[in-house]
């Protein structure tokens, strides 16, 4: 397995370091002229507006390369209908770096119902339509048209999660690797700082892009069978699996120093496109090689070429991560945008990201596939420095830090207790089906961080708004008390996602026992602190394994708990997530290779998905006609009636009947159309948000008797 001998910031600086850091990375030739640049070494093309903040990928990569001495320009949200914007900064000396932005462009553009969204949080004034569908493909093609001879390196979450053949929800088919479709020279997967720095230095040192085939965390194309020609002595390899292919790699240090690596050849694109069993096998094999400690090279044939995904990149050390966050970001949108509003920026401008990665392994989430399972933690001092920068330099700061968190609020500095065990571990999750005994779940460092941050001069409030892993939190009552007493602003969001065990097991989520244990602690310590505070639960509709009967049980649980969810999340099969594979194949890929007895129900089509969503919003009168029809078909008409013991009433509200003559019949006719799969939703506001709101009325929002125990 290849290793990196050079730390992220230990490379010799490129000669252009003499220019020093720019106030902001240039977006125009006039800005380049003001900096004294005649050209850019690297140009980053991004689907997001350029915000010079460590929460935005183009800023992190750009500033990291700038710290290496390279001149980096930004082309943000170019007009993709011509090459003009792609030539605005001239020809880059080394390469174009292309990213769709902080989100997959298809998820950015479309709801779970495949309907266009009306806004874009990463665009000025939240304007929609400033990036194309499948932005990575389109931008790469335009870069090629602008400067045919310049290498193109693609990265970001869209490229990262489409690096092999994958099910695409929006076209409802298996698509080729984005490397094949985009015709890019190289793909960087994961966060990518380590990879992009090595790529840039080696290109600047005179190597060709075709020579960079040994960098971890990257993927490339080669002719089918080329790697097989590099076969060497196999005596040290375990070749009991016929899919294992031995490779010989020639490191740069010495041509005589040959390293042996193991590669797994997964079923070809042509196979996984036609055969769902092959797709399931490819997905299961691929997900088993996510660890930077023991992950193998993955090879997948596409026609006469192979897509080769090298081993996952090595995580950044605490010192390296600190250095990335300490770079001279302005922490503001580029001046080009003047006073434009950016919802994504407004959400994070007073927040601090304390870590990367997630060992939760939830099957519907792609954080592990992108950022990795290993937690990469910043030091306490680095985090405090960022809080002080926000306090002292961010316009509009009133003393409140909106979030101190990350992908998960309470995984900071949690790692395996035994490094030797971690090196060989293949578990997809450290907390499912149970919390691993080797996992360090000590919350004491996090408690100390909270205390230090909130005691800084000028800091009035430090909130924790990131999703909380409550099955970890209950192991530290002191942490729960600290959180509830000082860092909750009336509401705390947590994500049980479902109430029924079959669905939870397919989500790789803990049982509701953990939720109720945390709930009891939450209300106990809220009462002790003299605060009236409430939990906001997240639930997913339409997840594989969730039948209508199970969704009914969720609705009854919500009714009993007196929760009314304002907005709910409908399952989106995002590229490469395990749950997306289950959705496509209708097979439980979380188990062994024999798929015969592992069929899984999946809510597919407009009718089934609307029913599942309607159960989560059982209190919405618009859903009542549909739910009446469904409940009758299920033999549960006993849940229809007037009174608190029923799920839904027998008739629509009188005010609706009075306003619309014959409304009851029209509503029921519409519901019947939906049940038959021929109707369209009457609700035109289909913008899905990963957010749910506890709509309890004050008169019935007190903790139940079970909570008071």
Descriptive report:
This protein is of the alpha/beta class and 709 residues long. The chain folds into two domains: 15-223 and 296-309, no CATH class; 350-619 and 679-698, tm_1862 like domain (pyruvate-formate lyase- activating enzyme), CATH 3.80.30.20. 32% of the residues lie in helices and 13% in strands. The chain contains 26 helices and 21 strands. The strands form six sheets. A ten-stranded mixed beta sheet has the order 2-1-3-4-7-8-12-11-10-9, with helices on both faces. It has a three-stranded parallel beta sheet with strand order 19-20-21. Strands 5-6 form a two-stranded antiparallel sheet. Helix 2 packs across helix 7, helix 9 runs antiparallel to helix 21 (578-585) and helix 17 packs across helix 19 (512-528). The longest helix is centred in the last third of the chain and has 17 residues, at 512-528. The relative contact order is 0.08. Residues 229-240, 248-258, 656-664 and 677-709 have low confidence and may be disordered.
Can I get a quick summary?
With 709 residues, the chain is of the alpha/beta class.
Top keywords for this entry?
globular; 26 helices; 2 domains; three-stranded parallel beta sheet; 709 residues; pyruvate-formate lyase- activating enzyme; alpha/beta; ten-stranded mixed beta sheet
CATH superfamily of the largest domain: tm_1862 like domain
CATH architectural group of the largest domain? Alpha-Beta Horseshoe
Tally of alpha and pi helices: 26
Q: Main sheet: which strands, in order across? A: 2-1-3-4-7-8-12-11-10-9
**Major sheet size, sense and barrel closure:** 10 strands, mixed
Please tell me what the overall shape is.
globular
State the domain count. 2
